[in-house]
Amino acid sequence: MKIQSVTGPVDPQFLQKTMIHEHLVFDLSEVREEKDADSKLENSPELDQEIKRIIESGCNTVVEVSNIGMGRDAKAMFDIAKKHNLVIIASTGFYKESVYPSFVFEKTKEELAEIMIREIEDGMDDTTIKAGLIAEIGSSYQEITETEKKVFEAAILAHKKTGAPISTHCEIGTMGKGQLDLFQENNADMSRISFGHQDLNEDIEEQLELLKSGAFIQFDTVGKNSYRRDSDRLSNLIELLNLGYEDQLMLSCDITRKSHLKSFDGYGYNHLFEDFIPALLNNGVKEETIDKMLVQNPRRFLAF
Ligand SMILES: [Zn+2]
């Protein structure tokens, strides 16, 4: 079992603290509903500073969940990984209906699965740089459209063929249950699935239903206080930990805008390590539990 990074296979034990759902380089400035220049992240001196900070915090791995149609840049990820000696795991797949390239609507699920399999086995974007997971596979707000359903089924086919894990996008935390139903109807191995943005889901009963399936769930928008206050994330997370789910939780910040970077007065990627983790510790969460969420669980989830 190896973890497939952009610079080659890595032994799972090599992973230290891992951010499970991030974007380093992507471009949604043209496709986002609001069309704004803020939705573009680049290989830049500002990003270099961000990466130096997380490395100083003991993080050596970033799971990059940008995929086809989001301005994903395999070569830039490779360059960043080399420059900083950072493990970057890239993603294949398609995001959500409003961002799909037009061919996604035309192709069958088998054809879409073929594209994902090729990116995992051979490489992305005419390079030999391989994707290491299928992510972020998304649904729309309060709805899984027909085409999104097809993309989920394609992702499950590619997951069965390659063994690669799947990480999802739940728009503002919604539709986790609908995604779970799709995975179960298609006999996906739930221990290889991680549901994204569950810290934005204020329905703890639904969070528990996802966890009881054996899947991982992610508290991956830490710092996005306009969606939900970190203090609420924290109490929700502690409640799940107290119920014994420490082996199925993973953490991240989901940086998606230039204005999230420290250089532009944002909270930055390191917010997870310099603010949120200390707050967990202050609230009685044990170091050992933090280690599971940041290190052990990502190692287990990402290896195939
Ligand atoms: Zn997302």
Automatic annotation (TrEMBL):
Binds 2 divalent metal cations per subunit. A divalent metal cation 2 binds at residues 136, 169, 197. A divalent metal cation 1 binds at residues 21, 23, 136, 254. InterPro entries: Metal_Hydrolase, Phosphotriesterase. Its cofactor is a divalent metal cation. GO terms for molecular function: hydrolase activity; zinc ion binding. The keyword Metal-binding applies. Gene3D superfamilies: Metal-dependent hydrolases. Pfam families: PTE. Keywords: Hydrolase, Metal-binding. Belongs to the metallo-dependent hydrolases superfamily. Phosphotriesterase family. This is Phosphotriesterase.
